[in-house]
Amino acid sequence: MRLDIAYRLHFTYSAPVAESQNEVRVRPLDDVRQQVLSYRLTTTPATRVLQTRDYFGTTVDHLGIRSPHDDLLVVAEASVETATTAAAHVPVTGERLREQTFINQHFEYLTPSQHVQWGDLVDEVASWAVRDAADDVYEQVLAVVRAVPTVLSYRRGSTAIGVTLEELIDGGAGVCQDFAHLAVGMLRCIGVPARYVSGYLFALDETRLDEGSHDTEPHDARLAGERPDGDLRSGRERATAGAGGDARAESGAAVGDQSAARRPKSADPTAISVQTHAWIEAAVPGSGWLGLDPTNGGSVGERHVVIGHGRDYHDVPPVRGVFNGTAEAKVDAEVIIAQPSAPVSMVTEPIRRQTRVAVNAAPEVPTQQAAHQHQQQQQQ
Question: CA-to-CA distance for 45 and 71, rounded, in angstroms?
Fold first, then answer.
């Protein structure tokens, strides 16, 4: 499937700031399942962009403005071709997970990380999820992914960045970022290496991936197919309000929450306006990484576009940065995805009209160092 993607980040400051420095992770990954056909990132005010790759292989665009400014617009445009990968299921016993070579190769995806730490409650939920699964790593991974939507309901505004896995389970609700973190934690509990994936999902409703998901209204996440008997929520009171606020980027932009997905005012009827999405990959001995989406209980397919992966969200935020000044910062983020019935410029034009600012590609050379910094982060 060919998809055109436009990602807009608009930073606004309550007063001019002397300098801002940001690193942006929004470029799709090139791998066996997807190929990036084109990509460009532009800013207003214009600045030079340095592109690198981080430890996990994610592309990072580094950009800085070293002159007074009260807003910064970043627009990333990409065209990507995706495909499905159907691998034959070969049974793998749990004993393979305990082989020292396998453990050494995946050690960082087996241990606790900043947003994936667990105690007795997560152990209990993980054990419950796989209690009826066969001694087959693949089946155990599926059992965990199928269990997550019976532990959590998809609910906007139910969590905030930094919520613990125990708080998620007690609250009983979250967005895709939370579904992914809980699935990763449960898998690590049972000895399966798991990593967090940040990316884009071409669907108005991220809780379902049937053929109508691109043009239906969002609904509560439920899993298609079989799931473990019972529902862990049945014996636990459900919270009507969570930790206060959406699962948001620390900079204040919505991430991993497509409940408000909509169609932009564009000439292209296939374009939709969403936010970034999050899912997981589990390492199966002898088979490599298996991509699954706990939010909708499905496999990762051609509508999923990977940006990058890491131990948890902290390793792949769409933007992380600092600025010099005492102003308050606000970040507005939007993703528009379209199938190529119209050129990518048709996708990005509504973004430019909305911000009323033209993208200027002329480079600005940084000239001085900031002395005082305030941190700002965003984020799937």
Answer: 8
**Helix axes of 120-129 and 137-151: crossing angle, nearest 10 degrees:** 120
CA distances from 100 to 135, 153, 244, 288, 300 (A): 19, 37, 42, 16, 29
- Torsion angle in degrees (nearest 10) through CA of 291, 297, 298, 303: -90
At residue 209, the pLDDT reads: 63
Q: What is d(CA 7, CA 25) in angstroms, rounded to the nearest whole number? A: 11
Summarised one tens digit per residue, pLDDT across range 307-355 is 999 999 999 999 999 999 999 999 999 999 999 865 545 444 544 444 4
Tokens of 268: 């292209």
Centroid of chain to Cα 247: 11
Residues of the chain with pLDDT under 70: 87, 209-269, 341-380
Q: What is the DSSP letter of 367?
A: -
Q: Which amino acid is at 86?
A: A
Indicate the burial class of 186 (C-beta count within 10 angstroms; 0-12, 13-18, 19 or more).
Answer: buried
DSSP output for 7-72: EEEEEEEEEEESEEEEEE--SPPPSSSEEEEEEEEEEES---EEEEE-TTS-EEEEEEE-S-EEEE
- Which tokens sit at 313? 């969200």
Quote the pLDDT of residue 161: 83
What's the pLDDT score for residue 285? Answer: 95
Which class for 110: exposed (0-12), middle (13-18), buried (19 or more C-beta within 10 A)?
middle
Cis peptide bond upstream of 45, omega within 30: yes
CB 242 within 8 Å of CB 137: no
Which pLDDT score, from 0 to 100, does residue 71 have?
Answer: 95
Task: State pLDDT tens for residues 155-207.
Answer: 887 888 889 999 999 999 999 999 999 999 999 999 999 999 999 999 887 77
- Read off φ and ψ for residue 319, nearest 5 degrees: -150, 140
- Strands 69-82, 304-310: pairing kind: unpaired
Instruction: Provide the token pair at 102.
Output: 């396998």
> Distance between alpha carbon 156 and the CA centroid of its chain, in Å?
15
